[in-house]
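ok trying again, last paste got cut off:
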Amino acid sequence: MDGEGTANLVAVASAEAATKFVLLSISGARADHPLSLFRAKFAAEQRLRASNLDWTIARPTAYMETWARIVGAKLPHGPALVFGQGANPINFVSVGDVAAIVAR
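nice, full thing came through this time. structure:
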């Protein structure tokens, strides 16, 4: 979806003379990332950058709501479980905050 799907959307937006294209990518996206999602997001960014569109790329960090559901589904009663040593900082962002900034 992030590869061919975005390429198709960019092509249609270009053909229809869209005035703006906003792509939600992911923080840390790069061509050599070990995770395929990050590589696909980076490829989508490159496709958009090469287009004739007026574009914005947002690279939010992990969504708080996603992780709250994942952890909450495993631990419906009680505190959230910290995996590992708990020494790695994680920067979460709210879906609503990202949406508000993109809308501006």
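cool. Helices lie at 4-15, 36-49, 64-74, 95-103. Strands lie at 21-24, 55-58, 62-63, 92-93.
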